[in-house]
Amino acid sequence: MLKLIILDRDGVINYDSADYIKSPDEWQAVPGSLEAIAKLNKAGYKVAIATNQSGIGRGYYDLNTLEEIHKKMFDQMAKVDAHIDALFFCPHKPEDNCDCRKPKPGLLLKIAEYLKIDLKDAVMIGDSERDIEAAQIAGTDGILLGSAEVPDLVHAVELILNLKTDFGQSRFKKKVI
Fold this sequence. Notes:
The protein is of the alpha/beta class. Helices cover 34% and strands 14% of the residues. It has a 5-stranded parallel beta sheet with strand order 3-2-1-4-5, with helices on both faces. The protein is globular.
């Protein structure tokens, strides 16, 4: 039974930037994304965020700034009765070869352990192939945003909420929507 939705942050909840989101002012929610999270909360799902934040490792911003960015995000979520049950991030640069930077599954595994939910009862929603690859390596399903069918988080959440049957043996397993 699906219990956990894991979201990438940049490009899913908020607009992404090739120059990184380096300040709270640069963090801007994608229209409808916060309300979509509230719908998941109201439907009884745990919602977590797994996000690569290599801007820290690159020296573009520090942990205090990241905390301020997340405070803005949480404050805006609260205004629409949305909340996040867990947030894990990777501060490393790609060349650091850590186990937490997606497409490696470390963040997803940490979320599952923290929330005590088996990843077979989860789905990862992301905007890049590395999000889906991390999900598949971790043994969970993935929904890739950006297609005509599932352009954004709003549509992905509607897809999940409208499923009439359990994911069972993985409705999205190794299938990118």
